[in-house]
Amino acid sequence: MSVREVQQKIDTMILHLGGYWKPLSGLARLLEEVGEVGGALRREAQDELKEELLDVLVISTCLANQYAIALQQPVAEGSESKEKLYFQIVEEAGEVARILNAYEGDKKLKPNRKGQSLQQHIERLQRAVMSLGASYQLNLFDSLFALIEEKSARDFGRFDHTPDPITETSVRTYLSHQPGRYWGGVPVKSFERFDRYIEREQHVERFYRIAAIEGLDGFVIQQRRDGLIGIENPFVKDGFTVAIEDYGTETFLIIRPAK
């Protein structure tokens, strides 16, 4: 089973359950599960350890999906002790927290940490998880699909729908025409000015902040016949451009990082 299949399966599960958590809420869940891995290690509870490691894989994959990250296949490495592997899990979870705090919270990245992407640290976290599992002869990837099916059945209707730029209809529709790493905006209102839409669509500012670091290709806004006005000379942040793309009867405005 490939990591791409896992990402798609988890995305389907999340949509079935109502949508992704807000990133900082997802981060809190990730750190909770990392702590529970430590508890299982301390108690030497191998079945519990497997469950908690799987939860770390699922939640970290959710975070990757929210930033349109195409993860590399995590491969177990057997050179470190179990203790050091857990320390690595904790360290990488902390790095994920540091970056998400800069993306979504109030803390800015330190100058010497800029350029380090969320993708790098999620992949390192998952490699450490796989390695720790392998040290206990746990084949975690083979157990993921069963866990996803269980969560889909158990948690259906448990969570409220949470809007997210990776699940908006605009981006899902656009991706049926063009592949890539995109976020999408909320539906436009009738005769809404472009500048007012940008003010209302809070995720655009997030996109400006992280697009270059995470390699996002663009932010998708789906136009409608009586939709956005004032798009002849749309204003966007320096370093970004706007293009209009038509696919049959569907029209999209794409904000892209300037080349």
From TrEMBL:
<dbReference type="InterPro" id="IPR012359">
    <property type="entry name" value="MazG-related_YpjD"/>
</dbReference>
<protein>
    <submittedName>
        <fullName>MazG nucleotide pyrophosphohydrolase</fullName>
    </submittedName>
</protein>
<dbReference type="InterPro" id="IPR047046">
    <property type="entry name" value="YpjD/YvdC"/>
</dbReference>
<dbReference type="Pfam" id="PF03819">
    <property type="entry name" value="MazG"/>
</dbReference>
<feature type="domain" description="NTP pyrophosphohydrolase MazG-like">
    <location>
        <begin position="24"/>
        <end position="73"/>
    </location>
</feature>
<dbReference type="InterPro" id="IPR004518">
    <property type="entry name" value="MazG-like_dom"/>
</dbReference>
